[in-house]
Amino acid sequence: MTIPTSPADTTYRSVEQLVRGIQTSDGAGVRLTRVLTQNLQRRLDPFLMLDAFRNDNPDDYIGGFPDHPHRGFETVTYMIAGRMRHHDSAGNEGLLGPGGAQWMTAGSGLIHSELPEQEAGLMEGFQLWVNLPSHDKMISPSYRDIPSEAIPEFTLANGVRVRIIAGVSHGVSGAVQRQTTEPLFLDVHLPSGSSFEQPIAPNHNAFTYTYRGNVSILGTTVPDRHMAIMANDGASSICIEAVEDARLIIVAGKPLNEPIAQYGPFVMNTADEIQQTLRDYRAGVFERSTVKSV
Ligand code: MN
Question: Which residues pair with 212 in a beta bridge?
Fold first, then answer.
């Protein structure tokens, strides 16, 4: 196994906890694994939720996610396989395909739907929720569709392929950058026997989720379809070693350290703000919102 040469002062985070997630369904009966659940929101601040879906039986995804609202955070959808079409309350629509992403800033609120554009075959991907700082929770909603070919990627000499949805890896800037939460979202494909290092600021929360094969992180085996929460132990990097062909996502970001008040698809800072959100929703405010494609 070749370990890339690193500066002598590089230190590596260990695995604090392995998480399998909970089998559940959401939307109109879409089966999924909720990997980052509400009890981990504080620990993994600024990330609020991670759903992994991987269904080849259309009954498990065909209903999709009909019209529903969001306010106060960002949703990031990353597709591995399959196609989803989205619509929003402002009349925008787009098609999300394999390897593509959508970064949606719900901000002050919108209503949208996410529906499969296929009746058979595999539907696989992730949805990550990234919190917004209190001063941005009521900004105008916007979204960006990022087709697969617009996601920057590189391949290292050891064959490791890295796709950068957000943040920066090995000097390559990803499709999305965010100032306050500084999210890093990588899709990493490792050939058997290879390894990959990613520097991560010691004060950022970080986790991985394997979706093909097992990997090893500082001596801990991380099985397929498990999240590994990386310890906040002051180390400068994480190092993933592939004991077989493997794929995983790496997610990290700067914690907001603000109160989190969640009611379903609304995430604010206080219970009063949630009550106001419900009043606005019932009053039809969300239906009248302008959603910009940026
Ligand atoms: Mn949604």
Answer: 247
